Amino acid sequence: MENFEEKASLCALNRIFGFDPKVALALISHLGSAAEVFRLSPEDIDGLLGPHSKYRDLIASSAVDQAAEELSRLQGSDILFTGWTEPDYPGLLKECPDAPVGLYVRTTTPLEKLWKPEPRIAVVGTRDISPYGKEWCEKTVRGMAASGSKPVIVSGLALGTDFYAHRTAIEEGVPTIGVMATGPEAIYPWRHKEFAERLYHTEGCALVTDYPPGTAPLAIHFLRRNRIIAGLSDATILIESKIKGGGMMTSRLAFSYDRDVYALPGRVDDLRSQGCNFLIKSKIAEPLTSVDELLDSLGLEKGRERGKVSFKDAVAQKYGCDTEFASQVVAAISIIRSERGITIEELAEKLTVSYSKAAQLAGALEMDGFISVDLLQRCSIGKIIQ
Questions:
Q1: Which CATH number fits domain 311-381: 3.40.50.1820, 3.40.50.300, 1.10.3860.10, 1.10.10.10?
Q2: What is the pTM of this model?
């Protein structure tokens, strides 16, 4: 039977010690429960935390009453709360010394089922992802999804790498968890609202945060949420990152938790690859150079990628074998493969055709899934091509 007093006490401690969870976890471990923390006298608190602790006046029964009211408001919603001493708190995260005292989980899946699938793999990286990074992000998630183990993909719901990791996971039919830096009812960035709602309504998927309802997306909150991404995951894969960035922090945290870290190597003069290259050079991360090798390293059973056909077969099925357009497709794909991120204007020069002709070709190829074109008209290989 659920102990509501303990849950409310955990919720209160999560609010009080959000940026200093180690203190709260030490108190809980020392006293045996979260509820016991709020039975301490002011003198007891002074003895445990020191006479000038900033938490002295915050550890009060009124904090538990406020938390109880919050939990009552959440009842009947799709937002659940679980605390560090409860059985439905994720065990992998509980191993971390700075684990949050509590988690708000927005999901339609019971918590005991949500944490059961393993392994969980974090895929993180820069918001300003390149075509090279996007291609490898999607290819890596698709490869893991096609494995016999089908791991849960964990990321941060941000622009760029995070979004592509989540989206590819859902497209490939594997669960994904988005860790947020806001309250559980808020979606940031706002443009991901429709996608995030689709995510947490999908079986086995969830939005997770340790921030209480009403928390705004401040910069400092994103730093704090990175430890949850790393802590929930058996391994972390960094796709692209500058030398300083959230993905770098997540990777370092994962390494400190004795979890495996992988990084996608890139050009030494590419700012978006400098972080990955540094982690590899520093022996913090293993280089990601082959999806098959990654699956072996993660202990994931290899499987045949679903929905994939050979390039030649795909072109023949769509356009025939001997048409002029098929020849143009082969030439265009060959160029895009060798020059990731090539623009439509540059593609026109390589094909020695007009810009309008190249744009028409690129539009058709994108519609048919052979390539993708970003807002800057940079082309990259689509997901149906091996």
A1: 1.10.10.10
A2: 0.81
